[in-house]
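#data-curation
PF: Archiving a pair of folding outputs for the training set. Convention for this channel: one message per protein, sequence first, structure tokens after, nothing in between. First:
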Amino acid sequence: MQDELLTNQKTEELSEEQAVQTEALDQEEKLEEKVDTEYDGSQIQVLEGLEAVRKRPGMYIGSTSTSGLHHLVYEIVDNAIDEALAGYCTEIQVMINEGDTITVVDNGRGIPVDIQAQTGKPALEVVYTVLHAGGKFGGGGYKVSGGLHGVGASVVNALSQWLQVQVHRDGKIYQMQFARGIVTQGMTVVGETNHTGTTVTFSPDPEMFDDTVYNYETLHTRLQEEAFLNAGLKITIRDDREGKQQQHTMCYEGGIKEFVSFLNRSKTSLHEQVIYMAGKKGDCMAEVALQYNDSYQENILSFANNVHTPEGGMHEDGFKRALTAVLNNYGKRTKILKDNDKISGEDCREGLACIISAKLTDAQFEGQTKAKLGNAEVRTLVSSIVMEKLDTFLEENPSVGRIILEKALTASRAREAAKRARESVRRKTGLESGQMPDKLQDCNERDPSLCEIYIVEGDSAAGSAIQGRDSRFQAILAMWGKMLNVEKARADKIIGNDKLAPLIVALGCGIGTEFNIEKLRYHKIIIMADADVDGAHIRTLLLTFFFRYMRPLIEHGYVYSAVPPLYKLQRGKTQKVAYSDEQRDAISTELRAGNPNVKVDISRFKGLGEMDPHELWETTMDPEYRSLRRITLEDGIQADQIFTVLMGEEVEPRKAWIEQNAQYAVNIDI
């Protein structure tokens, strides 16, 4: 999870009269347009070649943020992975070069270089300059492919200020060069070779991206995932940038079984053996690996043709249904479950770490970002694999079966307790009648898209925030003391918690399986805590809660952290604030105006509660001048791991993490 700095956010409102006037003017302009403008062929725009990609890059790579920047690498790597799936590639290398260019090398067959019949151009040129061109549309080049739409290479080319591709094939080295998708060097032979493969080097276009600096860990995490999913494939990532040199080589013969062990490495597993199941029907195959741990969260990751499907799909549905059926049937058969006992799917998945990987010829994804798999036949295949092979495993390993069922039964009892707690909270708070918590000072606006809520620790800080806010659209919820660490608690303890219950009621969208984002009352949820260790702890506790029980809030970009100033600087009647030590020094120099003898008073804000309402408004709450950090979820696997390490029961992993990362902690207040 990472944060994204947002500044100068302004909420503007029009009076009813202004709104009516504006609408009337708009209607006038539209009528004039209808009269004056002819709708003819001259207004039909045709985007040639890869212009469409540069015009609307988000349609092809999701966004032009750092997420989209890294997606370029994934597209090229996915092409190499497809060669591995076809049985021709055994090694892939990814290098971050000086200047943040990227080189990807594979030892596959090499992109074809002969003339492509439809276009009369070399196939290599077609692959890099034509959308929906590739060997993945039934031509026999690939049986299984993650690059479903055939736009990967050409999209990367279109969004790079330059790109060079070399193909080792048929004893020769062929080379082409491009600039923003346009050929700058036609295909030429530049040497001889005794191996096969493709080497691509590209420089992301700064005209297209907000930032062009690559994050090593982001790429490393994704490539490690690919190595787990392709047993025996060797993937190396190397950073050659000055001062950042590092390298990792990954190869996992155990495949997704090792992936599950990796997910559980900071948790206590309930059984030693990772349960592995696989099966095949026609050109479709699927494998599942799972292991239970003592946590209260499920962690199911599904993939189709090595592409992560964060929204699940048919393969995940098939697994969940079969798992619930198998555990209930086994429980009844062994009398572990009594006649009236029944465990829900949610109960069956508590503490489960699971990888589902399907590989099929005609993968039907939703969109280029491939968030969800739609092939119904995969659901049937995965379901039959789990129904047959998990049942057999439990019969052969009754001790493991009992452990899993007892875990599910405990979860079931906790779920019932949570239901009773929810009903109790509704009665105590009058939620059903619309009554809000006493600690909430609500705003006047009722449109969630215009509303924001500040979660403020301490009555004094909350008091200043209430007085300083714009009550039209800003709500204040006061919290007090350290709240519950939800990493160590089940839902029944959370719902009845006196510090978290008011937050749950105020947001209005429920938690866990009852979460409904349509009922969310505020589209900006802003954590406002002191800029010290205690404040950081409060933020971490709240983020743990949101990640575990209201995760869509983070995924939709609704959670923010306020950025209060650290220093107040004053020279005479001139006052300024600084948000960092560097800014403090720069402002101090500016106020002295080249005269070292001038006295500048510098004071450290000790906490939000010490700020006057107008100071808090001007520095931290005014949308025109404040800074907010949006909390984003770049990597769910990594976020899950960090929360487990930092907030879980195990001391040793936390100690090791602190020792490893202490070098990055500077200027911490004790």
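PF: Second:
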Amino acid sequence: MSETQRPASGDGFTQAAGTQLALYALVAMVVLAAIMALLSFAIGDSSASGGGAIDAERNAITITLRQEPPQLDATRSTDAASFAVLGHVMEGLISYDQKGQLIPGVAERWEIREDGATFWLRDDALWSDGKPVTAADFVFAWRRVVDPATASQYAFITYPIQNAEAITNGDLPPTTLGVRAANERRLEVDFQQPTPYFDKLVAFITFLPLRQDFFESTNGRYAADADMMLYNGPYLLSEWVHGASMRWTKNPLYWNDEKGFLDEIDIAYITTDVNAKLNLFKDAQIADTDLVAPMLPEAMERRWHIDRFMDGTVFFLEFNHRDGRVTKNKNFRKAMQLAQDPSELVYKVLKEAAYIPAESLFPSWIRGAQELLRREHPPTKHEMNLAKAREHLELARQELGLDDFPPIVLLSGDTPVSTLSAEYYQELFKRNLGLEVRIDLQTFKQRLAKMTSGEFDLVLSGWGPDYDDALTFGDLFSSWNLNNRGRYDSADMDANIRIAQSELDPVKRSAAFGEIQRISYEDVVILPMYERGWSFVVDPRLDGLIRRAVGPEVDYTYAKIRSASQNGDE
């Protein structure tokens, strides 16, 4: 997904849970008083019913979101902010447990065959208006995804389904999609080619259901406001003040009593301001927050329990490969590749303890046939070489017929890390190549819009896993993928992606990913920057919060407020 959304130490998740000591015996009162004083200093008032971050009386917590979700219509969503909300208020055929393993969702069981799949839906899966979730709701939703009129940037993810690609290209009507409701409770899917990982795919947001009668009743305003949606997940979006706040309330009709333990989750703040969120956490106004490097000394002084996890996302500089852009020239891209070193960015500029330099389009945790892909197919070792960089730049100037290079537009988000990265590259390419780089700093929503319309030469971009398979990164720069914002187009790349999509031999499939990795480096499709990790803290009264690499990055569906009798448990 775009800019996410994350597995930690290779296992797919990190569960964050704090601790707080409580009174067990009269003889421990002196020790208890000292501990409680320390915790009071660290996170503010810890009264069991004191409101703020944790309100045990209401069984509610208060949290933040980094961004306003731009698109809650799952057939069109592309970003982590929207996925974070949808992951709590909606449910697809298959879901995730606390350890990141696939578990039944709306489908109580399923069968994946070489030619297709069958999903049997449970009787007790209901929409928030009390009507059952049926196989027809998935048929309608998936047809809408592939319909060219929807212009879904994630239509490509449905291409394993028969006729999906042809429909998206306008060659067939949406009704020819290889999915049908055999009856209300049985969904049948026909494959275009063998897709043994299809169960992983349908756990993704794009495959969520959508009920046709409700969608049509909104007159084009579906998902524009809280009352313009139906829900079938653990929570309902009961309030939405755009750009300011949200409220999720427990869905009384949700079938699974092993998820959705909290009665209310208040998103009182929507902000990327890490300092503001730190102060809110210190004042016990929010239940968890991320920490950036300058905050770690204070957090350690306060003796907070600091957790870290790798969120699976790889960040990179993406080139615009469209005609008329200097970045379409391979020698120009090669010059920029040789003039930079991601290690310098990570260790000398960003200095984030949970970041590591990126070496490839594929992050380090992605698996190949039998072990990590990076061990089976090591990425090309990158070395900075300014002399060669300047040689390539001169070749580019001659090929483009230029006396001087025009200013290069670097599109960036407005977060502190993005701003720092953009300023670093601006100075770096001026110093090493004499290029003028103009930074176009945009809000999250505007940056996505400009990426889609191609208004950039370079863009600070990132991609997080949509599902637990190397293809979630491997097909990003296929010519048919609308998330390929720079419109890179290579027959060699496409051919290897086709192999990776359909090859049943895991060794041959891994080799195709190795080729995709080689092409992305040798053709300079992107400049890898870093793999993102997070340092974070959680109020010790909250148990069961999960950080995921695949699925919603921060998952509160298993979270509970610790009871007084649990205080002190490790």
